[in-house]
């Protein structure tokens, strides 16, 4: 398995977000991580990336405990794309994407031919080759998001995590980005896990959906998730309700 959660508990102080959660995420799958605000989606992604603490249990990446992976191997196993808007003036896209090669370059970050080829291929995979020399302070949110995904692709990791990658995008760009992630999972064999509030994208474009229902996590194929009754529970008592027939959210 690309990602294996083994009885993990995530907590801030006394507040438990997840308790004794186990789940397996396979290669070549795109999984959406959904849940209400503040239920711990970012916290879980950060824990899987080794950027945040786990209160109990363990995370395994590609069969090895995350805690035992030295930093360089960790960086060669999991890539993380955050919601942070990266707008570095004067730094061309190509150089931003090249940062993804850090785990493979020497101590002064010198790029070899293979590194340059990986950067070119990453830009090509996200359809941003024409932007290689442009700087990100002159690009749209959708274009910047693609460049950050290219950076993660240049990192050449079997696992890619993204925290709300569609957050700043308009509707067509949301679908386009999710389709890109789906293609990368299928064609490049990546295990991609991303958090989102886009229920429709989660159910229509992803292979699987992981739903945080505090303190549990339910992981199901997208179709099974839509029929499971778990999403209705997510909206229980709210002004909106989920209709499993049409897979849409409607006002009560
Ligand atoms: N460093 C921290 N210390 C203490 N509490 C934190 C910390 N970071 C997050 N929290 C709290 O933990 C809970 C989960 O936060 P997290 O950001 O993981 O949720 P989320 O599901 O990603 O939320 P959203 O959908 O709003 O982005 C929230 O209640 C948040 O306030």
What does this structure look like?
This protein has 252 residues and is α/β, with parallel strands linked by helices. The protein has a domain at 1-77 and 162-169 and 195-252: P-loop containing nucleotide triphosphate hydrolases (Rossmann fold, 3-Layer(aba) Sandwich), CATH 3.40.50.300. It has nine helices and twelve strands. The strands form three sheets. A six-stranded mixed beta sheet has the order 6-7-8-3-9-10, with helices on both faces. A four-stranded antiparallel beta sheet has the order 2-1-4-5, with helices on one face. The protein is globular and about 55 Å long. The mean pLDDT is 91. InterPro entries: AAA+_ATPase, ABC_transporter-like_ATP-bd, P-loop_NTPase. Residues 3-247 form the ABC transporter domain. One of its GO terms (molecular function) is ATP binding. This is ABC transporter ATP-binding protein.
Which superfamily, in CATH terms, is the homologous superfamily of the domain at 1-77 and 162-169 and 195-252?
Answer: P-loop containing nucleotide triphosphate hydrolases
Number of strands: 12
Mean pLDDT comes to 91
- Across the major sheet, the strand order is 6-7-8-3-9-10
The arrangement of helices and strands along the chain is: EEEHEEHEHHHEHEHEEHHEE
Tell me the β content: 25-35%
Give the bound compounds. Answer: adenosine-5'-triphosphate
Helical run tally: 9
- CATH overall fold name of the domain at 1-77 and 162-169 and 195-252: Rossmann fold
């Amino acid at each position: 398995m690309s990602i294996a959660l083994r009885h993990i508990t995530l907590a801030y102080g006394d507040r438990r977000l997840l308790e004794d959660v186990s789940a397996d995420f396979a290669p070549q799958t795109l999984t959406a991580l959904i849940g209400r605000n503040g239920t711990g989606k970012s916290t879980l992604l950060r824990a899987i990336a080794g950027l945040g603490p786990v209160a109990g249990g363990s995370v395994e990446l590609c069969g090895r405990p995350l805690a035992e992976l030295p930093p360089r191997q960790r960086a060669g196993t999991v890539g993380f794309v955050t919601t942070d808007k990266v707008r570095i003036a004067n730094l061309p896209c190509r150089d931003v994407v090249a940062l993804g090669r850090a785990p493979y370059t020497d101590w002064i970050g010198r790029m070899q031919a293979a590194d340059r080829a990986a950067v070119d291929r990453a830009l090509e995979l996200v359809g941003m080759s024409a932007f290689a020399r442009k700087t990100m302070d002159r690009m749209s949110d959708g274009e910047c998001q693609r460049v950050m995904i290219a950076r993660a692709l240049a990192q050449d990791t079997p696992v890619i995590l993204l925290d709300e990658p569609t957050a700043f995008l308009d509707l067509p760009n949301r679908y386009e980005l999710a389709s890109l992630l789906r293609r990368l999972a299928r064609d490049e064999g990546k295990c991609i896990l991303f958090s989102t509030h886009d229920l429709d994208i989660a159910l229509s474009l992803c292979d699987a959906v992981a739903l945080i229902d505090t303190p549990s996590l339910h992981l199901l194929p997208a179709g099974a998730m839509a029929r499971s009754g778990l999403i209705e529970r997510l909206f229980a008592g709210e002004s909106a309700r989920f209709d499993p027939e049409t897979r849409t959210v409607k006002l009560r």
